[in-house]
């Protein structure tokens, strides 16, 4: 894989919590190509959310290297990390992190307030950006009657759709998703994943999806099991 194709690269990455005697993980090697959809599957507590925080540059201490679009997070001061994350990464986390007092539409538009890169990609004018946000909500099948409601008034499944629309607004190169279907039953899980992957393909984003649920594998290009991460034999992702 050419370096220029890599959106995310983890090299000999490790993490140990302060005060802990053992690392959560060590020697992790992994890479994501542009537009790739990858499921990282592992049991609860193995370290998936911690790895996502390192991938996003939210945590930067520890051995190894994490590069986003060829730039090592470790080399950047915190303000630049925040800007780079806003420009290039969309996040769908378990708690969705919606602002409860903002409307659905304003929640989706948040990336445009934090990143001029995302704003420009979403549309040249405020009206175009709003139309793009609405198109994403429609694609994720969130009814227009809900768009003016505050996020706090939505069901969990509806909040998931808002979080997904927000993650893909402005077509970030990488979207990180942490157990995005954990609150859904089987039918809703598959429907949500199908919609998620549709907007992901349209945005051209690479997707790193972490979950304990191996049934999500059918929705992704490749699955990597947590146990394969530290083998040292997979400088790029080896499908399992
Ligand atoms: N803030 C923290 N301080 C100390 N240890 C932590 C902290 N957060 C998580 N851990 C520990 O780090 C390990 C990995 O946690 P992490 O949340 O990354 O796992 P996970 O695979 O995402 O789990 P789950 O699938 O249940 O969300 C666990 O043993 C957890 O107890």
Molecular structure report:
Helices cover 36% and strands 20% of the residues. It is α/β, with parallel strands linked by helices. The chain has a five-stranded parallel sheet, with helices on both faces. Strands 2-1-4-5 form a four-stranded antiparallel sheet, covered by helices on one side. Helix 3 (104-114) packs across helix 4, helix 3 runs parallel beside helix 6 (156-168) and helix 6 (156-168) runs parallel beside helix 7. The longest helix is centred in the last third of the chain and has 18 residues, at 186-203. Residues 233-240 have low confidence and may be disordered. It binds adenosine-5'-triphosphate. Adenosine-5'-triphosphate is lined by residues 17, 24, 42, 44-50, 212.
Instruction: Kindly identify the CATH topology.
Output: Rossmann fold
Structural class, by secondary structure, is alpha/beta
Spell the H/E element sequence: EEEHEEHEHHHHEHEEH
CATH superfamily: P-loop containing nucleotide triphosphate hydrolases
Radius of gyration over alpha carbons? 17 Å
User: How would a crystallographer describe the biggest sheet?
Assistant: 5 strands, parallel
What overall geometry do the principal axes of the alpha carbons give? globular
Adjacency order of strands in the biggest sheet: 6-7-8-3-9
Percent of residues in helices comes to: 25-40%
Q: State the name of the first-level CATH class.
A: Alpha Beta
Q: How many domain regions?
A: 1
Q: Strand content of the residues, in percent? A: 15-25%
Number-wise, the strands total 9
Low-confidence stretches: 233-240
Q: What is the rounded distance between the termini?
A: 18 Å
Q: What is the CATH architecture assignment?
A: 3-Layer(aba) Sandwich
Please, how many helices? 8
Protein name: Methionine ABC transporter ATP-binding protein
Domain ABC transporter: 8-240
GO molecular function, one term: ATP binding
Pfam families: ABC_tran
